[in-house]
Amino acid sequence: MQYIWYVVMFVFGASIGYLLRRIIGEAKITSAETEAKRILDQATKSAETKHREILLEARDSAQKLRAEIDRESRERRQEIQRFERRLINKEESLDRRQESLSQREEAMSRQEKTLVKKQRELEELHELSIKELERISGLSRESAREKILQEVRETLKGESARLIRDAETQARAEAEQKSRSIVALAIQRCAADHVAENTVSVVELPNDEMKGRIIGREGRNIRALETLTGIELIIDDTPEAVILSGFDPIRREVARLALERLVADGRIHPARIEEMVEKAQKDVESIVKQEGEQAALRLSVHGLHPELMKLLGRLRFRTSYGQNVLKHSIEVAQLAANMAAEIGADASIAKRSGLLHDIGKSVDHEVEGSHVAIGVNLLRRYRESQGVIRAIEAHHGDVEPQSVEAFLVAAADAISAARPGARRETLEMYLKRLEKLEDIANSFDGVEKSYAIQAGREIRIMVKPEKIDDIASVTLARDIVNKIEKELEYPGQIKVTVIRETRAVGYAK
């Protein structure tokens, strides 16, 4: 009986425990669900608050961006408007100049017609005067001519002595001019203006702080670059720029490429400088070779020695009075070949000679002598034909041309160098040359007016007819030419035209 009681009590206790554990478990579940719901609600509110903040920030950023874009748009529109106004002003100025030139051409045309008409009238008056003189003198034209010739012979005896003296004077003047030309050539190779125009390159920098990095600690970087390239680096107050100065255009190009790559890379130290200079040298050598091959291929000039190809490519970096020498050589070759084809000469020799006529300029800063002599020596070394060598040797008049092709190459060289726009000079030097040209003409007695036209390639001189007759006009033109050649330096040639005009005026009363 007692055992049954124990069993009943155990079952009752177990039931009570089970009920208590179930009640406690359900209470914990309910509490956990409540806490989870609270956390979820709080997270939802926090997310909504964050979302609203992000939207507000995005709206502020969009408004700022829109304002910045509007400002830049306004500035660009204003800049475009300024450019448009400048273009309109330039167009109006060009129109005015064109109209002025048209008026001048019309005036010159009318003046030319008037001169032709007056010339015909003078010829008619001349014939009438001759007939009247024959009637008055009783001499025929042949008799009068013989008598005049006899008087002229007597006059020319004294004139011949004067001509001999003038010839001696001219010979001394030519010798002096030649010596001055040699000195001027030496000065020209190191003159400040010439050097500043043709022997410097400019490398742009991202900022002025880069100048200090290029110089390096105690100047080690700039010394390394100058030693490896042989080019002088000029670092002055020029904002965000470094100037490279040197006579050798190839070395200057190597230095320019190396410095640009160092600036772009940002790592500037002696070892890196040496590496970049080596790469730049290889790149320039490749460019030189390609330029020479392309020039020969473009003109269909075959069989050139590989070294001549390289020397020809070096002319890509050489200029003369602002004219690229390689382009000039190609142009001379084309002109000479075209003229040779027109007159039946050997176009292949003319073309080959024109392409190689300035080959000496590729090394004229390294070898003593004129570029003609240097070029002739190079061509003989690489076994070019005698026809090509003779043409190149004579293209500046150092020796007499011995073939038609030599004459054509010299003419093509003069045409390419002297054509308008081929070679440049500063505006100040250009104006001074024109003023000097007119001053030379006005310095002669009997000159009334002088005008430099055709960009300084022609000067027209009006003389006083009562002081200068027709024969003296010829002498005056020759004297002015001599003085221009003696005192003035100019590219190409200058045409001197002396105009003598006689006017007969009468009044009917």
Give an overview of the whole structure.
The chain has 509 residues and is mostly helical. It is 71% helix and 7% strand. The chain has 15 helices and eight strands. It has helices at residues 2-137, 141-188, 192-198, 209-215, 220-229, 249-265, 270-299, 306-314, 325-343, 347-356, 371-381, 386-393, 404-418, 427-442, 470-487; strands at 200-204, 232-234, 241-245, 319-320, 323-324, 447-453, 458-463, 495-500. The strands form three sheets. The chain has a three-stranded antiparallel sheet. Strands 6-7-8 form a three-stranded mixed sheet. Helix 15 (470-487) links the parallel strand 7 and strand 8. Helix 7 crosses helix 8 (306-314), helix 9 runs antiparallel to helix 10 (347-356) and helix 10 packs across helix 13. The longest helix is centred in the first third of the chain and has 136 residues, at 2-137. The radius of gyration is 45 Å and the shape is elongated. Residues 182-197 have low confidence and may be disordered.
